């Protein structure tokens, strides 16, 4: 099992972020592989790689991901999805994914992935979902054996450019009581609005399956509008560009005036969760309108204005990160303390695609864990 970094101490604190109970909402299965696992699985399926040892491969993927372009960032997934085409490969990746979440102190996670991308070696859509679920359950058992209680649900993802959204929505509903907790809409955001999949979203609404939509990352406010109206999104995947609908004007050294536009006001008033992923947002250029460093990220602006912000990794491999590391980076950039980090986790617990009673129990575990920190 990979272990999370053990030196992630929060600023001005003896608290190790790894020890804090955390909720992970936006974490891609094909973005969380261990480099060594990629090497071994690639050898089994005959996939050529750009490096032949784990350290070099991990470094190559991180460098290739740090391009400032979502399109270039997504190309690294050709490698990871390439080794996830067999039942054994899918099961192993899912099992290790859960092991790594547990090692990072995650107590509830939602793992998103696109079954349609894992069919090249003859598996059916249902078979790949079953293989991933078997791996998840094995990983949960491993964590339990190590004294850690974790719960993990699948978010079945439809790729917005592939025009299979209704088929994938039906797949998600078929497996809703066998590990699937919701539906995601991902891929090349710009040029592929949720309105193209309106039939799928209508179907999901009729079945009361919760939906999150990637929006406000590679495209702006119209993408967010489409996610809310056409996609009926209960959460926004990233959603960082909602800040384009917010204007701040400094009157003097002590006074700043903020004007919130109609889309941002709706997202705020309805407390629609934002699945923000700080390191990834820097890598893909999602925040280039505000700057190139973490201190420029609109995260703090959104938090201070009362938006329901959550902290996520997006792709742990591509960003060479963990959820604990993302919390430490935010604390260093914006001066957050434990009470702020607890708010982010409680926000995520409230946003989880779980029954109300389960979310309340999750919130209690978080509060108890932070109280002991």
Question: What's a concise summary of this model?
Answer:
By secondary structure, the protein is of the alpha/beta class. It has helices at 35-45, 54-65, 70-75, 77-82, 87-103, 125-145, 165-174, 198-206, 221-229, 262-269, 278-283, 299-304, 323-334, 338-351, 356-372, and strands spanning 22-28, 106-113, 151-159, 180-186, 211-215, 235-238, 246-250, 256-260, 274-276, 309-311.
- Name the CATH architecture: Alpha-Beta Barrel
How many strand elements?
A: 10
The helix content is: 40-55%
Q: Can you tell me the CATH class?
A: Alpha Beta
Mean pLDDT: 94
CATH superfamily: Metal-dependent hydrolases
Radius of gyration: 20 Å
The number of distinct helices, counting runs of at least 4 residues, comes to: 15
Task: Domain count, please report it.
Answer: 1
Strand content: 15-25%
Q: Which H/E pattern describes the elements? A: EHHHHHEHEHEHEHEEEHEHHEHHH
Output the strand order for the largest sheet.
1-2-3-4-5-6-9-10
Backbone structural class: alpha/beta
Main sheet: strands, sense, barrel: 8 strands, parallel
Protein name: adenosine deaminase
Domain Adenosine deaminase: 21-367
GO cellular component, one term: cytosol
Keywords: Hydrolase, Metal-binding, Nucleotide metabolism, Zinc
């Amino acid at each position: 099992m990979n272990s999370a970094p053990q030196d992630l101490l929060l600023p001005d604190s003896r608290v190790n972020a790894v020890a804090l109970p955390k909720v992970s909402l936006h974490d891609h299965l094909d973005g969380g592989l261990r480099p060594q696992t990629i090497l071994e699985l690639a050898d089994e399926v005959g996939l050529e790689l750009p490096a032949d040892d784990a350290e070099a491969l991990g470094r190559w993927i991180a460098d290739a991901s740090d391009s400032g372009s979502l399109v270039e960032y997504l190309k690294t997934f050709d490698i990871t999805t390439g080794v996830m085409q067999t039942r054994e490969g899918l099961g192993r990746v899912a099992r290790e994914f859960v092991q790594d979440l547990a090692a990072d102190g995650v107590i509830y996670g939602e793992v998103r992935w696109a079954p349609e991308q894992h069919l090249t070696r003859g598996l059916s859509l249902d078979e790949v979902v079953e293989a991933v679920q078997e791996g998840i359950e094995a990983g949960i058992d491993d964590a339990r054996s190590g004294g850690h209680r974790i719960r993990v649900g699948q978010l079945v993802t439809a790729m917005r450019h592939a025009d299979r959204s209704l088929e994938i929505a039906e797949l998600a509903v078929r497996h809703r009581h066998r590990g699937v907790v919701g539906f995601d809409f991902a891929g090349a955001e710009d040029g592929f609005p949720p309105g193209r999949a309106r039939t799928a979203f209508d179907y999901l609404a009729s079945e009361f399956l919760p939906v999150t939509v990637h929006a406000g990352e590679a495209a702006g406010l119209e993408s967010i509008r489409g996610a809310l109206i056409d996609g009926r999104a209960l959460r926004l995947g990233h959603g960082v560009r909602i800040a384009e609908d917010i204007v701040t004007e400094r009157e003097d050294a002590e006074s700043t005036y903020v004007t919130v536009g109609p889309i941002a006001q709706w997202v705020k008033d309805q407390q629609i969760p934002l699945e923000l992923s700080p390191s990834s947002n820097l890598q893909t250029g999602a925040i280039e309108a505000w700057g190139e460093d973490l201190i420029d990220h609109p995260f703090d602006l959104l938090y201070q204005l009362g938006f329901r912000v959550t902290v996520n990794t997006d792709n742990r491999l591509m960003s060479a990160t963990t959820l604990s590391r993302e919390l430490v980076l935010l604390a260093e950039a914006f001066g957050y303390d434990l009470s702020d980090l607890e708010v982010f986790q409680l926000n995520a617990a409230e946003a989880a695609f779980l029954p109300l009673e389960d979310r309340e129990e999750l919130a209690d575990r978080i509060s108890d864990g932070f109280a002991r920190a």
